[in-house]
Amino acid sequence: MTSASWHARIRCGRDTGAGFLVSDRLVLTCAHVVAGSSTEGVSVSFAQGTGEAIAARVIAHGGWDGRDTDLGDLAVLELERQVTIKPAVFAAPTEAYGDPPRKLLVYGFPKHYDEGTLAEYRATTDQLIAGEWVQLEAWAAHGQPLVPGFSGAAVTLADTGRVVGMVSAAARDSGIRNGRMLPAHVMARYWPRLADLIPTPEYDGPQKERLRLLVEAASQQQGGLECGPERLYRDAVGRLGPLPPLSGFSCLWDVAWYLLYEVPDPEAVARFTARLADFVEDAPTRFALRSWPDARNGTAPARRAETARSWSPILVEIAPSGCGDHQLLVEVSAYNGRHRRVVGSRRLPAERVRAYALERLDEAYHELEPGARELIAFVLPRRWLNLDVAHWQRSPDDDSPLGCFAPLVVMGLERRRDFGLQHKLRQKWQQIDAQPAARLHRVGCGSLGQDPRTLTVGLRRSTDIVGFGAPPRAVGARRLFHATLNAAAPVMLWPRTGCRGGPSHKDCRGTAFLDRLAEHLTGMPPAELPAYVHELRETAYIAEPNEPHWAFDLALLWEDPRCLPDPVGYQHTPVG
């Protein structure tokens, strides 16, 4: 037997309907039940409570405009105080349907039933009428029909009591034994926070919460998206993925729920989330999860970061050839998941490296899937980590910086070939994923004289992002850079130009740089730093030339071995 304590009776003036509790202060009902709330008071009482009426107000509305056939017949009510009643629990949307059909219960408050009464129904099919409703049919030829007073009632599974939808239309004639249900996933179109309460066993909470935030932000974006829902769906499932439904997608939530429940490939949801993030203008929403009152208890949880999802890296490795300083080995490869394809590999004189790398890099894009999120990673020897690869002109026909074209990072060649440090890096990223945010460890210009060994050991015990106020060439900085690399620091940032070191540091920009860095990185998930730094570089590039942006020469070393197969070390000097 299931509890009915969270079923609610809604009164708005002379109108009576039903609703159901979803948190200690929030109740869902139909918008038409509280249509007069602008002039009439709204009160809520609970089926198995004391009968006390609690005042409420409408805080969210689905957009219903008063017609019986209009869409968005949903309202969210906030009680004037918290209640101790346990809220309703939702079922997965697919659980409402089956062969044989599943019995559904509805608890409503028709005329002469102030304490409420039950009706037994079933869903005809999971096909949506007008993309909005599911038709309900009476379970038997007798029993309570859906009449006025049932609108807004939760539709629950008879055996578990879990909610699958809400009654949105009841018959005005007691002889008509059908009605309409607004399924839970359709309700989430109009109140996206509801999506966090609907089970999706294949997807964790943070992943789905970020998807919700992106859909909500994109839906509210002025001017709309440049890319429609169906195009985003096709990008997510790929060329060989399942076709979209014949009815199409009316909104982004339709795509999200279809991917969550109808597409067996979990990576499709990740690709859809990534692609959608490209179109959302609000940077904090793209890169982090913002706090909002928890639907269960009304509290604001700590800010959480999404676990790093897979990038599709294009790797440009520049290494000594063993034939002198002017001969280098250049290899460009593209990664699609765990598969790597070498696009080009050649030994070249130093002056030809840039042109060759850029040509092969452009070819590497051909290996990426349409929805892939590219990451350009230059693997450089330690002494060249300050190379201005982010400022390289992208192509002869495009003189904008490569770092403004796509997220771009550098990695240390020696560390890529050190399997012990790669193991430590994997451990660091596991620790980062388990904590709300990484801290910024500052290495200011005035601390360049510290013992490198102490820095190495200290950073091995933390998962900090390391920020330098001076470039590697500054006096005393090179040893500390090497010490930080040896500590397996997953992320390092510094200005490519600026302070050259020395005893006084007069007019040094290092402190100001670290202050701005700390301001911008607060709460930022380290896994998303390449994308965020890419945005900073774009902002710096278009800034006024007489007032250089603080990040105009920002360098980012970022290395997550989980994005790349294990590097293969050379067994012999690669000469010949």
Spatial order of the strands forming the largest sheet: 1-2-3-6-5-4
Based on CA atoms alone, the radius of gyration comes out at 29 Å
Helical proportion, percent range: 10-25%
Going by helix content, strand content and strand pairing, the class is: alpha+beta
Number of helices: 14
Spans of at least 5 consecutive residues with low confidence: 289-309, 567-576
Question: What can be said about the biggest beta sheet?
Answer: 6 strands, antiparallel, barrel
Q: How much strand content do the residues show?
A: 15-25%
Nearest-integer average pLDDT? 83
Q: Give a count of the beta strands, DSSP E runs of length 2 or more.
A: 23
Shape designation: elongated
Measured distance between first and last alpha carbons: 79 Å
What does this structure look like?
- By secondary structure, the protein is an alpha+beta fold.
- 24% of the residues lie in helices and 24% in strands.
- It contains 14 helices and 23 strands.
- The strands form five sheets. Strands 1-2-3-6-5-4 form a six-stranded antiparallel beta barrel. A six-stranded antiparallel β-barrel has the order 7-8-9-12-11-10. Strands 15-14-13-16-19 form a five-stranded mixed beta sheet.
- Helix 11 runs parallel beside helix 12.
- The longest helix has 15 residues.
- The radius of gyration is 29 Å and the shape is elongated.
- The chain starts with 6 loop residues before the first strand and ends in an 18-residue tail after the last strand.
- The C terminus is likely disordered.
